[in-house]
Each structure stands twice: as C-alpha cells, then as structure tokens.
Amino acid sequence: MKRLPSLAPPAFLGLGGLLVLGLVLFGTGSDRTYDAGVLEPMAAEAAEVVEVKALGHGQTFGGVLGRAAVPHAEQQRVLMAFQEQHSPGRLRVGTEFTFRYLRGDDQVRGIDVVVSPDEMVRLERADLGWRSSKLETPTWTDTIVVAGQIDRDLWSAVVLNPDLEAMPRGDRARVIDLMDRVFQWQLDFSRQIQRGDSYRLAFEREVRPDGTMRTGKILAAELVNRDTPLQAIWFDLHGDGEGGYYDAEGESLRRAFLKAPLEYRRISSRFNMNRLHPIHGDRRPHIGVDYAAPTGTPVMATSDGTVTFRGVRGGYGNLVEIRHSRGYLTRYAHLNGFNSSVRQGSRVSQGQVIGYVGMTGTATGPHLHYELHRNGNPVDPLDVDIPSGDPIPSEYMERWKAERDQRFTLLDAATQNRPLRMAEGEGLPGTSADGRSSQDQ
C-alpha cells in the first residue's frame, strides 16, 4: 500500500485550526466544486478542477458516475478498475467521490473514492482504460496538553473541557479510554473517581485531514484521586514502539492482573468464607467476587496464561479456567458463551476477551463469578497484593530521567494555562530540536 505525502498543517495553527482545515477540505454538501490548481503566479488559472459527490440512499457507484456525466460505455471500465481494490457493494451511504477534470475539459481525468477513514481508492485514466491503486489517508502528528477539575464525573471533565472543544466529541471520549488503559491497574474508573479529583494530560495524536484522530497515545498523565497523585510516563525501553507506563520513580504501572475482568455495574457478592447461600439457604464459603453486568458483556482474562478448562462444570455453568505464572489460577463462571478462539490448552493474554456474561449454572441473574487462587488457595481478588511489572533497568535510568523530566514539563504547561500544540518534529518546551535542554547550550 502506498502512503500519500503527509499534509502537515502550518505550525502556527492551533487546535481549532485543524478543524477549520478539515472543513475547508471536505465541507458538508453532497456536490461541491473547487479549484485545485497552482496558486502562483496569482494571475494564472487553476489547472485542475475537482467536484465532490456523495453516495445517497439507494444509489450505486454507477449512479454516481452518471451524475458526474461519465459516459455509460466507460462506467463499466471504471467499475472493473475499482473492483481490483474494493467491492462496490461495501460502499456506504455518504461515501465521497472526488472527480478531477482539467479546466475547460469535461472529461474526467481521475476519481478518488474514500472507502474508509484511513483509505481511499484512486482511479486514473490510462492509455488502455483505467488503473486503480489504494492509498492511505495522509495524516500529521501533534501533541496536546490539557488539565481539568472533576466537578461531576470524569466523562464530563474531559469531553466538556472547553480547551478541547475543537476536537471531535468522539475523539475526546477516546482520550478517556486511553486514560483508563493507562491507570487500569491503579484505579477503577467506574467506581473510584470522585468530585474534587483533577487531571493533567499530554497526549500525542495522529490526525486525519478532516480533523479526526486516527490513533492517540498518552505521553504523560497525572490523576489526583482523593488527594493522592497518580502519575504515568510513557517510556519506550527498547525503541521498538512496545513501551509501557511508569511512575515518577521508574516503577512499572502494569500489574500481573487487571483489577477487574469486565466493565461492571456493581459488585453483587464479595469474597466471604461464611456467606449465606442465596439458593441452598445454608452458610458456605463464597470464594470469589460476583460482578453484576448485562448478559453478553465481554469478559477478559485478567492476566497472561494458559486455558486449563473451557466447558460446563456443575454449579459454575459455563466456565473458563486459566493457569498463570507464580502459582496463580483464575476462574470465570456462569458465562453465556465463549470466545471461539479460547480453547483448552490455548494461550491468552491480559485483556483478551475469553467469554461473555450470562446466568448459566446456579446463577439467579446475569453476572460473572470470578475467582483468584494462589498456590492452590482462594484469595480475595479485591484485597490481594498483586505483583507489579519490572521497573526501569539501571542501564536505561539516565535516558528515562531525561524523558520523564521533559514529559513533566508538558504537564506543567497544562496547569499554567499555556495552550500548547506541537506539530510533528517540534521540540519539547525548554529543549532544542535535537532534544537537548536549553540550559545545556
């Protein structure tokens, strides 16, 4: 797949400027015409004109070609070239077609079809018909810093933050998901965030021409929860893109187990060695935690491991059992169904979906019964001391400290109300383009 040249915006454009650029490029109408030619000298006419059309309800690719006055005899050749890259039947309502003409010539020279947010098919007139190629949507990379106070909930504090109002609303919600992934081992976002908490973020995003975010990554974050600051710094230990998050001392934020195996509404029953059984009426140990959640809610493996059982087992109903390192074992019971890729003997990774919430076995309502065993003994998943990942090795500590200090500079910019947006290739505040501190020069 070829990649189009990056369309980096001018460095002086703020976050709002990104969306302005997107609106200029794409607009909102279904049929639009633009000049797209050479701007110098100013007296010269544009060499090319583009016309944008959108696929309407009940329309076909051929119908759009007809609206663009492509001769019927030529439409089949265009469709055959397009089919080499993408199926016309998979095009959705609203798909944009950009037709290119030479000024003063009604013959279509080329057609660009946006088949997904990240790909388009380019059709070009050739000597013997039409040729096609698939192109990746051009993007640029920038870094944004923001801070906020949680007055109601985290969603409102981020999505409704006025400093992010120029970002698409859906992208702002994705930032919350990124935060949740960073702090998933330290904090339960659905239960432990409260009013009065605050956050600071520096995140890098890959931006499409329409202003939407293709990918995002948090570079540094601080979340003050109940007056306790939790900090996270991204560090790529080996420079292969497979880095992780560490606290200010270089300790890994990753834990051997997730705090919870699913997104849940409430805990309906806790670990209790003397619980009154809701069905049998006698007292017997409840050696796990019950998470109430709707039927079909995805259930994740809380740690890397090997599946030792997948099937039906007595009162557990549909059960997945996973053996982990260091003598740990987990069970996930009352499932409605299993992930088809999860079988006895298969390897699973932390966060991988293994099944779905149900009410099989002796369950009286939809929930997940989750057990954690250590060296053959059940332990309370909500109270056990889970081992953490490896800290920054000593041989990387000097580089780690330099990057940590740079990232903290970004967070300081957020709280000092200094709007900051850096285009790709710009240095961090207080550094030169090669990353050296201004104090060292």
How would you characterize this protein structure?
The protein is an alpha+beta fold. The chain has three domains: 31-136, Nuclear Transport Factor 2, Chain: A; 139-254 and 389-441, Nuclear Transport Factor 2, Chain: A (Roll); 266-379, Glucose Permease (Domain IIA). It is built from six helices and 25 strands. It has helices at residues 15-26, 61-67, 72-83, 154-159, 169-182, 397-415; strands spanning 2-3, 32-35, 48-54, 96-102, 108-116, 119-126, 129-136, 140-149, 198-207, 213-225, 228-235, 244-246, 266-269, 272-276, 283-286, 289-292, 298-300, 305-313, 317-323, 328-338, 347-348, 353-357, 367-374, 377-379, 421-423. The strands form four sheets. Strands 13, 16, 17, 18, 19, 20, 21, 22, 23 and 24 form a ten-stranded antiparallel beta sheet that branches. The protein has a seven-stranded mixed beta sheet with strand order 1-7-6-5-4-3-2. The protein has a six-stranded antiparallel beta sheet with strand order 12-11-10-9-8-25, sandwiched between helices. Helix 2 (61-67) crosses helix 3 (72-83). Mean pLDDT is 82; it is low at 1-30, 33-44 and 425-441.
